[in-house]
Design a protein that fits this description.
Blueprint lengths: L5 E2 L11 H5 L8 E11 L8 H9 L8 E10 L16 E11 L5 H9 L2 E3 L3 E2 L19 E5 L3 H12 L3 E5 L5 H14 L32 H10 L16 H17 L3 E3 L4 E6 L10 E6 L2 E4 L2 E4 L6 H9 L5 E2 L2 E10 H9 L3 H7 L18 E6 L2 E5 L9 E5 L7 E10 L1 H4 L5 H16 L6 E5 H6 L15 E3 L2 H4 L2 H17 L9 E6 L6 E2 L15 E3 L10 H18 L2
Parallel strand pairs: 7-8, 7-13, 8-9, 13-24, 20-21
Antiparallel strand pairs: 1-6, 2-4, 2-5, 3-4, 10-11, 11-12, 14-23, 15-19, 15-22, 16-19, 17-18, 20-22
Helix pairs in contact: 4-16
The protein binds flavin-adenine dinucleotide (FAD).
């Protein structure tokens, strides 16, 4: 959307205890300009506090002239350079930091000019705002009743849409089919005890959405103007301040469970009404609407009818029954390529050795190592890549339909389990799953049923050692794993479509070069991963964000096919809601 309200670049408000607060922000006066200095080098054990002075030196500005400073990005550079720097034998590792410096707009220096020419400094991207700068008078006009928004789904897309809408004057109700946090946890525990799937409250559905039981990784590479304000909200609700700049930022399931009640309390204080254990079940069309632009007057829910002016649909990537209901009610759906494969697990120690060279000091400084691996496509297409890697994590059953099994991963904030897991996936499209908007869903279901049966029909997961997978033979036994329901030795290779089996085999061989042992006896493939991406999308108007053919439905987030992950879903929800505030009903 083009209607994102954006402000001139400002230093973000420093959070207590963060590197940015240590660096300090001077009081601003007069017009300013924000520059991003790229590629400051920081040794693993070097404090961030020294970066401010170093950055000033590079630009040739006296520290007292600086109006603001913040770290914009800090990432680990693990390229081997054949020389030692930093600590201990992990000498090839260092951080690379980008920093934003707010300067008086008339500041000039030869150093700054040179760095700009060399591309080592550039204008910092604009920072937007979640506070509405302008609200169309069709939404909140004096003397008029507030416009009513119903938001379906309490995941990141729904929550950030609700936040923006309530700030813009909407009366907001969030419908969530799953339970509030504590009840959700109890129902998940019951699933583990009884092995009877709960269709409404599970790893995928319930307060906070699908990311509530996750590593809480925040992929923040999009340079979207709303990225910083969203991260700042998360910090305000209790996320660690480092998420504002750390490229490996993650919150962890334990911290997410502390953050979500604060988030809900904050929204409730602003007037948002949460209806948990309440499912969207139907659309009530406004009889007066013309045929090209249908309009809703209300929704049918499991707790009765709810009148509305706008409907935000943020149902996530697993609400298959909801998609089918919406499709039957006239909402357009299209198939979308998605990823499938298997979850691979290794001892965390093996990954640490591969990434840090076995140096315990580095591991103490950096924590459990992660990876992000990609292999080349073969002649038959299909590049395999790792996805949603969970260092020190565990494998979980992502189940919302009985008799169907899909695996996924989560971690706590300390990454403290002895195992590392990740999805190894390949992208499949209509050439694999055939025509029709729900053909991808049919393939997902088929694979999940096969995985469930191969595990013995009680959510035990089928598993195969990586070496056996590569040799094309069944595993006879499996090493212990983090997967709570246990595993049954079997043949993941025979469960996967042939194209995916070949891509995973190529990937495992290739990834052995990056992490020795990855493709060997210590690797274990657990279950099938079918939900790494949404297999459908709800087409929407590029400018207004409205569902095609509807005047007041706004599909957002992963379930609408416009995001994949916590941050991108939050951004999508906030962006479409911000656009509505400006454009009006
Ligand atoms: C185990 C796991 C780990 C993950 N780890 C990460 C990670 O580390 N980093 C990352 O970026 N992403 C991760 N993801 C993906 C991420 O969680 C999603 O991309 C993100 O949550 C999508 O946000 P969303 O708001 O679009 O939908 P969701 O978060 O899926 O929320 C949708 C909500 O809508 C509700 N809903 C559905 N249908 C209805 C209905 N009919 N009526 C009422 N409510 C309904 C659901 O109950 C759900 O709570 C993980 C996902 C899983 C399952």
């Amino acid at each position: 959307m083009s209607a994102v309200p954006s402000q001139p670049s400002q230093p973000s408000k420093p959070s207590k205890g963060s590197a940015n607060s240590k660096a300090g922000v001077a009081p601003a006066s007069g017009p300013t300009r924000t520059y991003r200095l790229l590629g400051l080098s920081l040794e693993l054990d070097e404090p961030e506090a020294g970066l401010r002075a170093r950055a000033c030196g590079k630009l040739g500005i006296a520290p007292e002239e600086l109006r603001g400073f913040r770290l914009a990005r800090k990432s680990l550079d693990a390229r081997r350079r054949g020389r030692r720097s930093g600590t201990g034998s992990g000498g090839h590792l260092r951080f690379v930091v980008h920093a934003d410096l707010v300067l008086p707009s008339d500041f000039k220096s030869a150093r700054l000019a040179r760095l700009l020419r060399q591309g080592k400094v550039r204008e910092a991207p604009a920072v937007g705002s979640l506070e509405p700068t302008r609200v169309h008078n069709s939404i909140a006009a004096p003397g008029k009743r507030a416009a009513r928004a119903v938001v379906v789904g309490s995941g990141p897309a729904g929550i950030f849409a609700a936040l923006v809408l309530v700030r813009g004057g909407f009366e907001v109700t969030v419908l969530e089919r799953g339970a509030p946090l504590r009840e959700r946890a109890a129902r998940l525990a019951r699933f583990h005890k009884t092995r009877v799937a709960d269709t409404e409250s599970n790893v995928l559905f319930g307060e906070g959405g699908a990311g509530t039981y996750s590593d809480g990784k925040l992929y923040t590479r999009v340079d979207d103007p709303l990225e910083v304000p969203i991260l700042e909200e998360l910090v305000r609700w209790g996320a660690p301040p480092e998420i504002l700049y750390d490229s490996r930022a993650h919150i962890g399931t334990d911290r997410l469970h502390k953050l979500l009640p604060r988030l809900r309390g904050d929204l409730q204080e602003r007037g948002v009404k949460f209806c948990f254990n309440t499912r969207l079940e139907g659309l009530c069309l406004d009889g007066a609407a013309d045929n090209r632009q249908r309009s809703l007057r209300a929704v049918r829910t499991s707790a009765g009818e709810l009148p509305l002016d706008v409907l935000f649909l943020a149902p996530g990537s697993s609400a298959r029954d909801t998609w089918e209901m919406l499709h039957a009610a006239g909402v357009s759906f299209e198939a979308r390529p998605f990823q499938l494969g298997s979850r691979v697990e290794h001892p965390q120690e093996l990954v640490n050795r591969g990434r840090y060279g076995g140096d315990g000091t580095v591991c103490e400084l950096l924590g459990a190592a992660s990876y992000n691996l990609v292999s080349r496509p073969g002649a038959d297409g299909g590049a395999c890549h790792s996805f949603c890697m969970c260092p020190g994590g565990r494998i979980v059953a992502s189940v919302n339909e009985p008799g169907r099994l899909c695996t996924n991963g989560m971690s706590n904030s300390r990454h403290s389990s002895p195992y590392a897991n990740a999805a190894l996936v390949v992208t499949v499209g209509p050439e694999t799953f055939g025509p029709g908007p729900f053909a991808g869903v049919a393939l997902q279901r088929e694979l999940e049923e096969a995985a469930f049966a191969a595990g013995g029909g009680d959510y035990t997961a089928p598993a195969q050692g990586v070496a056996d997978f590569l040799a094309g033979r069944a595993s006879r036994s499996c090493r212990p794993t983090s997967y709570g329901f246990g595993v049954r030795p079997g043949r993941i290779d025979e469960l996967l479509p042939e194209q995916a089996r070949r891509a995973l085999a190529r990937g495992l061989v290739r990834f052995e070069n990056s992490i020795p042992g990855f493709g060997g006896a210590e690797g274990l493939l657990v279950g099938l991963e079918t939900r790494s991406a949404c297999p459908v999308m709800m087409p929407r108007d590029r400018l207004s964000g409205r569902a095609v053919g509807f005047a007041n439905i706004y599909p957002v987030g992963e379930g609408a096919g416009f995001a994949g992950g916590i941050m991108s879903s939050a951004l999508d929800g906030a962006r479409i809601a911000s656009g509505l505030l400006v454009a009006g009903l």
